[in-house]
Amino acid sequence: MNTQRFRRRTFLPLFFILGAILQVPATAGAATTEAPPAKSVKMNSTADHTKYEELQQPFASGPEVTKACLKCHTEAAGQIHRTKHWTWEFLNPENGQRLGKKNVLNNFCIAISQNYSFCTGCHIGYGWKDKDFDFTSEVNVDCLACHDTTGSYRKPAGNAGNPVVGEPMEMPPGSGKMVKPVDLTKVARKVGKTSRDNCGNCHFYGGGGDGVKHGDMDSSLAAPDRELDVHMDATGLDFTCGTCHKTSSHDVPGSRYMPTAKEKHGAYIRGKGEKVNPATCQACHGNTPHKSPILLKTARMNTHAEKMACQVCHIPAFARGGVATKMSWDWSTAGQKGADGKHMVKKDATGHVVYDTRKGDFVLGHDVVPEYRWFNGDIKYTLLGDKVEKSANPTPINRIDGSPDDGRSMIWPMKVMRGVQPFDPVNKTLVMPHVAGNDDLGYWKNLEWEKAIADGMQNVNAPFSGKVDFIKTEMYWPITHMVAPKEKVVACAECHAADSRLKGLPGIYMPGYSANGWLDILGWLAALTALLGVLIHGAVRITLSLRKAG
Amino acid sequence: MSDRIYIFNRFNRFWHWSQAALVIPLLITGFEIHGTYSLFGFETAVSYHTLLAWSLIGLWAFSIFWLFTTGEWRQYIPTLEKVDAMIKYYVTGIFTHAPHPFRLTRLQKHNPLQRIAYLTILSVVGPITWSTGLLYIFHDYWSEWGLRSFLALEWVAFFHTLAAFMMLVFVILHVYLITTGHTVFAHLKAMITGWEEVED
Question: What ipTM did this prediction achieve?
Answer without folding.
Answer: 0.92
